Structures are given as C-alpha cells and as structure tokens.
Amino acid sequence: MESILVLTHADESGTALSKGSLEAVTAGRELSARLGAELTIGIVAKEASGAAAQVVGAAKILLAVHGEAFAQARFASDAAACEALCRAAQAAIVVAPGSSRFARVMAAVAHRMGGSIDTHITAVGSADGVEATRWFYRQRIEAVVSREKHPWFLLVDAGTHAAFEGGAGQVQVEQIVVDLPEMRTNVTGMRAPKQDAQTIRPDAKLLFVAGAGWTKKQPDGQIHVEQAGELILKFLKGSGASLGSSKSLVDQGGEGNSVLPFLTHLNQVGQTGSTPRHAKGLSTCCHGEEPHVVGWRFIGERRAVSLDANCGWTRGKADVVYVADAFEVIGKVNALLESKAAPSS
Ligand SMILES: Cc1cc2nc3c(=O)[nH]c(=O)nc-3n(C[C@H](O)[C@H](O)[C@H](O)COP(=O)(O)OP(=O)(O)OC[C@H]3O[C@@H](n4cnc5c(N)ncnc54)[C@H](O)[C@@H]3O)c2cc1C
Q: What's the rounded Cα separation, in Å, for the pair 204 and 195?
C-alpha cells in the first residue's frame, strides 16, 4: 500500500497555511481515500500550531518543522525542512503545492531522497497505480504520467483543487528536528509592487481582459488611451480582478504607439501567452480570435463587451456578449463599484 505525504508551508504571516498548501491537502486526501493509503501532513512554518489547526481531521499524522529559521523562504532551510519531513514520513508519494517557495527546493529534495519529481500537476488519479495529469505545449497536450521511481514528488498547480477546510478539534503535532547547514542567505525584507501596480492576481475570481480596441479610434474619431488606462485601473481596484490582455494590445508597445503603461507581455492571454484559471472572465474591446480565446480554456463563465456584433465572442466563444461601448459600460460599472464601496451615511 502506498503511503502519502502532503508537504505544506505557511503564507507570509508565518502562522497560517498558504491557499496552495490547503489545495495540496485536498489532492492528498482524495488520493489517499482512493488508494486506502495512510496520509501524513508535513508543515513548514515559523509557528506550526495555527497552521496545524487548519488541517484538523485531514490526516492521521501531522509532522511539523518550525522556528524562526523557517519564517522566510530560503533554499537551504526549506530544502532541509522538507528533507527532514520526508525522512520522517517515509512516504512513497509526496504531494506539495507548486508555489514559488516549494518549486525552488523540491527538485533538490527529490534528488536527496533518491526519488523523482513532476511539476504543474493538475490532477492525481489512481486507475492503474498512481497517475498524475499535466499539460504540455501551452496547454494543448494533456499527458497522464506514472513513475516507478519513489518517492515520487508531485507539485500541484494552484487553482486545480478546492482548498481544504477542516473542522474544529484537538490536534497533535509531532515536531521534527532539522539539522540546519550553515546559512549564507538572510532575507532582509520584501520589495513588492504596490497592490494597484500588481495587475496579475492568480487568486482573483475574475479575469478582466483588455483588447486592442481600447487604444483604437473611437466613434468620435479620436483615440482615448489615457481615459482607457484610468477606466481599467479603476475597475481593477474596485473589483480585485486580474488583468489579462490580447497580444495585439501588448505588442503595440514595441511599435512606438501609445499604449497602456501598466501592461506587459506577462499579461498576455492566449496561444503564445498564459492560460490562467479564474471562475469568471470579462473581455473588453477584444475581437475574440481563436489564438486569444484558447488561453481562456480554464475560465468558467465568459462574458465580453465588444462593439462588433459579429466578433468571435458572439460566434459561440462567450456565454454572454454585450454589444456595447466598453468605455461607457466600464465607466458605469466603476460608478456602481464605487457606490457599493462607499460607506452609507
Ligand atoms: C501564431 C499566433 C499566435 C497568437 N497568439 C496570441 C495570443 O497568445 N494571445 C492573443 O491575444 N492573440 C494572439 N494572436 C493574435 C490573435 O490572432 C489576434 O490578432 C489578437 O488576439 C487580436 O487582438 P484584439 O482582439 O485585442 O484586437 P482586434 O482584433 O483589433 O480587436 C479589437 C476589438 O475591439 C473592439 N472595440 C473597439 N472599440 C471598442 C469599444 N469602445 N467598446 C467595445 N469594443 C470595442 C472592436 O470592435 C474589435 O472587435 C496570435 C496570432 C498568431 C498568428
């Protein structure tokens, strides 16, 4: 019988588990239920008791590595912590979140354990032994992988499983002592763009896509790029949506044209861009051509605002299309968001 270890880590608070970790717990639980295998959860955190309380009832055995050294994401301490948890659990399958913190160390941990690793896993099945599913070639080919070499580490992509929600109750955690090597790196602080400037938000419920239409001549014969930028940023701030873009819009920067300064190629959605996962998507000023829409594969409900009643979205690619001027529509939506956010007097 396979035994399974789910490795988890705390979020920036140092005491609560990250959302990706709770998703990995769900993936591990589902697999252990199907295989009838023993499940262990390993926690890496500054302070493990709060994190452990979040997974009450998830697994029989809880192991934790905690302390000031594990407050920060750092290769040497994180790799040592994960290795110690793996040695303590002796599991054949190790499920972990594909977060930047764990993605950085897990290949090394797999190597130290003499195992194998696969990343970007979207589903873990068990038809004939354990099988992991992942996409290749920009989400065009779906592969089902199985491996003989154990322990087999599976880094699960964010957004592919529901986050585990535990019940209340007593929880017993076994502390694992880690022999830390000499630390050469110390994280002295974090520098991140302001919340407003950070437009790619993988955890957002809504994907808002801006198309090239925002920078094109409008019915008055003029372009209104500045107004477009203000409308889009205000919408992102009010709704908390993640910003995607069509290729045509982000490419304009390279041609010396007037563009929206907060957009980069990282925002591009589509065949040669990203394939984000969000519950809903709203496309604006975008034609809905196939190379763009292929990036919407994992978007649940799709809506679009376009002036073109004959655009790709209306030809079956969106659930709802508003044939309307996006400047007007988003202006009105922003006013509604503002009035909702304003405290009632
Ligand atoms: C190999 C290859 C790979 C590609 N990869 C990608 C990719 O990864 N991602 C991607 O996006 N594209 C990709 N493309 C390009 C893609 O085919 C389209 O050219 C591109 O998506 C078009 O962008 P758009 O819809 O924003 O612009 P346009 O086609 O110019 O459409 C603009 C739309 O805005 C509407 N509009 C204008 N003003 C308003 C207004 N006020 N209100 C509402 N609507 C308005 C217009 O009616 C029009 O429909 C690729 C193409 C190729 C050949």
A: 13
Query: How far apart are alpha carbons 304 and 315 in whole angstroms?
Result: 12
H-only helix segments in the chain: 19-35, 48-53, 75-89, 100-112, 225-239, 247-251, 290-293, 326-341
User: At 202, is the pLDDT very low, low, confident or very high (cuts 50, 70, 90)?
Assistant: confident
Question: In terms of residues, how long is the chain?
Answer: 345
Residue with the nearest Cα to atom 50 of ligand 1?
291
For 12, 28, 46, 133, 173, the CA distances from 51, given in Å and listed in that order, are 12, 17, 10, 28, 10
Give the predicted TM-score (pTM) of the model.
0.73
pLDDT in tens, 266-324: 999 999 999 999 999 999 999 999 999 999 999 999 999 999 999 999 999 999 999 99
Collapsing DSSP to helix, strand or coil, 318 comes out as coil
- 174-175 sheet: strands from edge to edge: 141-145, 131-136, 116-125, 152-156, 93-97, 4-9, 39-45, 61-66, 174-175
Residues near 162 by Cβ (< 8 Å), separated by ≥ 6?
A: 23, 26
- How far, in Å, is the centroid of ligand 1 from the Cα of 9? 40
Pocket test for ligand 1, best of 223, 243, 247, 314 (most atoms within 8 A of CB): 247
State pLDDT tens for residues 117-131. 999 999 999 877 899
> Which two structure tokens, joined as six digits, stand for 31?
């697999």
Name the token pair of 259: 């563009």
Pocket lined around ligand 1, Cβ cut-off 6 Å: 211-213, 216, 218, 246-249, 268-273, 285-287, 289, 291-292, 295, 305-308, 311, 325-327
Burial (CB < 10 A; 0-12, 13-18, 19+), residue 94, is buried
Atom of ligand 1 nearest to the CA of 210: 26
Two tokens, residue 233: 């940023």
Kindly state the helix (H) or strand (E) to which residue 283 belongs, with its residue range: strand 278-284
**Taking the CB of residue 255, how many other CB atoms lie within 10 A of it?**
7
Through-space distance between the first and last CA atoms of the chain, rounded to whole angstroms: 63
